[in-house]
From TrEMBL:
The gene is rpsU. Gene3D superfamilies: Ribosomal protein S8 (1.20.5.1150). The keyword Ribonucleoprotein applies. GO terms for biological process: translation. It comes from the Bacteria. GO terms for molecular function: structural constituent of ribosome. GO terms for cellular component: ribonucleoprotein complex; ribosome. It comes from Rhizobium leguminosarum. Keywords: Ribonucleoprotein, Ribosomal protein. This is Small ribosomal subunit protein bS21. InterPro entries: Ribosomal_bS21, Ribosomal_bS21_sf.
Amino acid sequence: MQVLVRDNNVEQALRFLKKKLQREGVFREARLRERFEKPSEKRAREKAEGIRRVRKLARKKLERESGISAPKKARSSGR
């Protein structure tokens, strides 16, 4: 992966690199590889991710079609 530095602007190039790495899922994969994940835990995690992904797509589709956003969940203070 390459990022070009223009006009010696390293900060901007670093931000762009971080965005690229985020999009590729490098940070997420590194976090997952920090410790061993049992196959049963992996299946459960992937299943939950799939469910979240499907629900998010359905919510976005509903918002687009009806023009109404879904009601926000009330958060408890957790203190």
